[in-house]
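Below is how a single chain appears once it has passed through the pipeline. First comes the sequence as given, then the structure the pipeline wrote out for it. We keep one example in the README because the format questions we get most often are answered faster by looking than by reading.
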Amino acid sequence: MSHNSPENGKLVDGLDIPIVKLVPRTERVVSAKYLKRIEASMRAVGMLDPFVVFPQGDSYEILDGCLRYRILLEMGVETVPCLIRDQREAFTCHKMVNHISASQEMKMIRKSLEELDEKTIASALGMVGIAHRLNLNLLNKLDPMVVKAFDACKLNLLCAKEFAHVKPERQAEILKLMESCNDYSVTFARGMVLKTAVAKRTKSNGARSPWAQADEKKNDLLKTLREAEQQQDFYTGLYRQYTTNLLKLVIYVRSMIANARIKKYLVERHPHLLEMFEQIIISTER
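Resulting structure:
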């Protein structure tokens, strides 16, 4: 079999190769926990991706799959499927891909539960169970719009936990403020929680809440919140001024090209300017 690489259009041939002929290109240093997770996944669902190799004499250099190579050696596997590249340096290996975030992992696991049972998923991830990774108790406390923002990775896990300290209606208010300021930081969320009236807070059940911190930390959070509000006011004023100036420009341009002599001059001498002026008017009428 063969595949065309979207990376550089070079031909890639598939072949089953004895594992003794494979030579790792690099020795990645990873934690034993991470290696064990990969092994558990391979034992549960098999090896989904073939190795990517480059021929060197009688052997093949592994461009992608060094960690899987170590695991398969220990498992006693004799032959592995490989994709053979005809270029060595052009290859970009999978280790450049970023690890998924906590919210992405939760979303992936919840989606997997639609087709697989918890035991199978836990086995593939190298875990005893997956309940602690789902954070279902946290999700049940969050407003649907906050859950949606969390799934979209706008909010990280720590930030989502801050929302749980206030009631759903207040969560929706805080989320709108974060969107208007384009600030999804934990500090901003914590500051808004601190500013929330007691009636809109949730019971802490004995857990230490953000508003039970030292006075100095409270002052820092309030200062950050005030700065965010000032920034919002600044951009709101800037947008209003921009809108006013744009309306003035449209009125001026409309009057100018409505003058027959000016329009005739532009048609004869500067047609590109006339086209630009007409586009300004059209854009404001949509």
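Residues 1-9, 94-100 have pLDDT under 50 and may be disordered.

See the next section for the split statistics.
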